[in-house]
Amino acid sequence: MKHYTRLTGRQSDQANLDTIDSILSSLGLSQQKDTIVGDIFLKGLSGGQKRRLSIALEALSNPKNFFLDEPTSGLDSESAYQVMKFLREYAAAAPGRRVILTIHQPSSFIWQTIDHVVLMAKGKLMFQGNRKDMESFFESAGYPTPPEYNPADHYVNAVNDEFSNNVMHPDDWSNEFLNWHFTHGGGKLVHGHNHEHLRKSSIVHKDEVHTNRANALTTSIELTRRYFANLIFNPGILGTRVAMYAMLSIMCGALFWDLGGSETYASIQSRIALSFYCVAFFIFMSIAVMPFTVAEKGIVDKEVKNGYYHPAVYQVAQALASLPGAALLAFIVTLFIITMTRLREPLWYFVLMFLALVNAEALAQLVSHMVRRAETTQWGSFTHYTVSLYGSISVPHFVIGMALVAGGFMLVPSEFPNWLRWSYNCAFHTYAWRSFMMTEFGGDVTFSDSPQLPTGRDVLEVYEIEDVNRFHDCMVLLGYAAIIHLCSFIVLHLKYMKSKKNNSAAN
After folding, report:
1. Which of 20, 100, 290, 297 is at 20 to 30 A from 242, Cα to Cα?
2. What is the phi-psi region of residue 464: left when phi exceeds 0, alpha when psi lies from -120 to 50, beta otherwise?
């Protein structure tokens, strides 16, 4: 709640803290205010509590038009009533506020909290107007509410033609309502093209409460803070990756123990193989971040559509927040492998591994923006989540796999087919691996027990990378990461503009 308070541009002062306590109390969440929300990986709030929390979060920003889709679904009768009571009080608390929601089976208590009703069936308008006028319409149509019967249930059952006991078709009900509506001096209806009265009714008082949003800088900081808070509350997000990188680094260090102290031809082959493995597998493992990135998309999509921030702000925050994690993983790999194998120049090794991981995570983020939005098992379809997750993981698998083939280890540049030589320069693995090679074999390195390749330059010449400039390749890797993030921005912006266009068309 405090996080969303800051996203709305407010300070966490006492007045806003009191507002948070009041909202939580009204929605029955006071006892859970210090409970983590949880996700598919970590237990937290129940499904109904999450539903009420989502309402509380949106209420914090004072939306003038508060739209909700079945806010009482999945709630017990008392919780559902308290939610509707809160929404009614929210609408009445300031001029110009409206709460517009869909609901399928309101109880008799909930029915009393509703002011105006639009009843639909088969895409047809069955009724529109004040709730208190509905009984008059159904009485005139010959379907009065039976004694001691929930009116809402009766009205829904009456217009449902899927069962034989209802003789009127939705088209008949629609015509019946139109006749009744204009006979009783009703105005223009929302259903159809006559919306002028609705526009006029949307004019609110000048002292209306405005929706609050933070500026781009504040939002970027807040989203970055949220990322690190997620790491703290769910250490498995980064902890699992740290454990995997550490164990594999230790395994590599043990297998290639004191490799740097050997000057045999076999040791040269081992150094080349280890360099390629580090570029290939440690970068490949960055895909482990994908489940968490995809699972968060639903939250981000909702926040963007609700106007909390432009998607570019989220992309900036995500890019910045991923840097410490990449640095930590690069440090772990460098620490164990360089210490145990005694390879050369640990600083260069760390920088190159860090830049390679930054590119891999940027690629994972880009792909997560391109796949369909994932739903968690709590709110939606498990199959939908699985398909989204599978797509988000398989695409970077393919891209990284193709890049490894074209990276210069399996085939030197001069042996590439003419029509595929461009691929050597397109893979960021190329620049990481050949700079690793230059770090290990560059300079005046010699191998006294290797008559086949007596110097490091001889090794580099075999792979046609003897003139590589590591600083230049680092700049290329930085530019590569910037281009990937730019592509992410373009994808997010296009989706954002499409969403705005669809909303404008709907209005």
Report:
1. 297
2. left
Element holding 419 (H helix, E strand) = none
Task: Give mean pLDDT, residues 131-149.
Answer: 90
Judge whether 145 and 106 are in contact, CB under 8 Å.
Answer: no
- Confirm if 362 and 283 have CB atoms less than 8 A apart: no
Asked if 40 and 296 touch (Cβ cutoff 8 Å), the reply is: no
What is the C-alpha to C-alpha distance for residues 453 and 473, in angstroms, rounded to an integer? 25
pTM of the model: 0.75
pLDDT value, residue 119: 92
Cβ(485)–Cβ(312) under 8 Å? no
Write the DSSP assignment of 431-481 as a string of letters. HHHHHHHHHHH-SS-B-TB-SSS-BHHHHHHHTT-TT--HHHHHHHHHHHH
Closest by Cα among 485, 444, 438 to 464: 438
For the chain, what is the largest distance between any 2 Cα atoms, rounded to a whole number of angstroms? 105
Encode 65-87 in three state secondary structure. Answer: EEEEECCCCCCCHHHHHHHHHHH
Q: Is residue 182 within 8 Å of residue 176, measured between CB atoms? A: no
Q: Give the helix/strand (H/E) hosting 311.
A: helix 311-341
389-407 tens-digit pLDDT: 555 556 666 777 777 788 8
